[in-house]
């Protein structure tokens, strides 16, 4: 029998802390490794989580035979729970850095339930809490575990016919999704949750095809829980009025290969589930629409067979991404006319810009752009050389080596700068010490 209290003895264990990677210190304007790790530390009550799981699954806590960390993402930690019946489910717990946490959890759960009720391949939610006022002592979502293959694991091995099949399936799923009409823009919530969170009723989804009264009781449109989108979309009443002239729809907020779980059992790829609906929102069609409009089928460049292994890998990945865009575009045009039509909003020239720039201002902007492009090339080189990703993230196993490489690059850079007349010996001494 797995004793949950024993898992609470070591609060420094991987269950509560971020172990997938580390963060290199970039400069005074970026947070260092310790701060990044602290923002991703979340201690919670494991016995309380076991009790919550037992209630949700109508079983005893003694039936939980395994509990382990499954994955860590940018905003959440995921745990795999296994019962003695071999049934498995996942518990997802957000990091402290996720904001606005309460609205994000409440909206995601309602969005998943709503889309699942429309026949879309979305995970089933068994239990959740959008506040930490519970026996788990944290916000959480208990949901279905799908045993398929993450598309990102086989991405580099995809053949063109498999890409065509996947894009065709995806376009059909998105067609169903984007055909759902909404009375307004915002995020989807359970009506009862939004009432508790904000005191507001929200806008009921009163125009759904079936069981209208049931829909109105359960789901509603409330405030968009994305901080960036909220500040943009609600900047002015004029913009809001303009949205009323366009249909509202929903789409996955950040669909990548890592968000698709597929099955390979039948010999052909089948989409099993679309994961991670955090920050999903109902928006005007023109804000959701986005497909490459270049309809020329991509091909490998001339002389590809004479390229180095590194260049072959780079060109192969580039071709694969272009094929995805190309076939996604074709499938969207065939199966998802709503989305394809939405691209037309970008096709017109629109009104003449009222702001006029002088030749001098244009030249200054061009000079600034060139300087920025040079800086970005340098940053890309540094990123490839040291081996870090966004926010200077590196895999935990690579941290010490990457840190040493970064420190050596820094030392040589400051040494070169110290030879410049504009950098004093005192400045060099300070930067070298840091």
From TrEMBL:
Pfam families: DUF1679 (PF07914). It comes from the Eukaryota. InterPro entries: Dhs-27, Kinase-like_dom_sf, Mito_inheritance_9. GO terms for cellular component: mitochondrion. SUPFAM superfamilies: Protein kinase-like (PK-like). PANTHER family: ALTERED INHERITANCE OF MITOCHONDRIA PROTEIN 9, MITOCHONDRIAL, AMINOGLYCOSIDE PHOSPHOTRANSFERASE DOMAIN-CONTAINING PROTEIN. This is Aminoglycoside phosphotransferase domain-containing protein.
């Amino acid at each position: 029998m797995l004793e949950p209290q024993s898992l609470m003895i070591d609060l420094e264990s991987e269950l509560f802390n971020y172990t997938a990677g580390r963060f290199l210190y970039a400069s005074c304007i970026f947070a260092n490794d310790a701060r990044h790790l602290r923002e991703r530390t979340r201690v919670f009550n494991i016995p309380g989580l076991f009790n919550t799981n037992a209630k949700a699954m109508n079983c005893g806590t003694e039936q939980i035979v395994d509990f382990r960390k499954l994955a860590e993402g940018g905003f959440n930690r995921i745990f795999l729970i296994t019962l003695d019946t071999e049934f498995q489910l996942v518990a997802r717990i957000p990091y402290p850095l996720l904001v606005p946490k309460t609205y994000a959890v409440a909206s995601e759960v309602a969005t998943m339930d709503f889309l699942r009720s429309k026949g879309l391949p979305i995970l089933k939610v068994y239990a959740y809490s959008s506040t930490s006022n519970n026996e788990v002592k944290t916000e959480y979502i208990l949901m279905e575990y799908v045993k398929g293959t993450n598309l990102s694991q086989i991405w580099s091995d995809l053949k063109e016919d498999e890409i065509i099949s996947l894009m065709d399936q995806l376009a059909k799923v998105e067609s169903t999704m984007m055909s759902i009409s909404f009375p307004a823009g915002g995020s989807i919530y359970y009506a009862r949750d939004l009432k508790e969170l904000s005191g507001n009723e929200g806008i009921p989804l009163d125009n759904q095809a079936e069981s209208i009264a049931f829909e109105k009781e359960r789901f509603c449109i409330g405030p968009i829980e994305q901080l960036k989108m909220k500040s943009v979309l609600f900047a002015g009443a004029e913009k809001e009025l303009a949205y009323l002239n366009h249909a509202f729809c929903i789409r996955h907020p950040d669909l990548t290969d890592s968000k698709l779980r597929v099955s390979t059992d039948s010999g052909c790829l089948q989409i099993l589930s679309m994961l991670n609906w955090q920050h999903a929102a109902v928006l005007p069609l023109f804000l959701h629409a986005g497909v490459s409009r270049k309809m020329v089928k991509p091909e490998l460049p001339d002389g590809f067979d004479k390229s180095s292994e590194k260049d072959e890998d780079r060109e192969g990945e580039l071709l694969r991404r272009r094929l995805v865009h190309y076939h996604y575009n074709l499938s969207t045009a065939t199966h998802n006319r709503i989305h394809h039509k939405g691209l037309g909003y970008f096709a017109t020239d629109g009104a003449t810009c009222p702001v006029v720039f002088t030749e001098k201002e244009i030249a200054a902007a061009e000079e600034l752009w060139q300087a920025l492009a040079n800086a970005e090339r340098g940053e890309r080189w540094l990123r490839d050389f040291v081996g870090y990703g966004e926010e200077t993230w590196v895999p935990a196993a690579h941290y010490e080596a990457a840190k040493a490489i970064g420190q050596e690059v820094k030392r040589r850079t400051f040494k070169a700068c110290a030879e410049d007349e504009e950098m004093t010996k005192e400045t060099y001494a300070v930067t070298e010490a840091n």
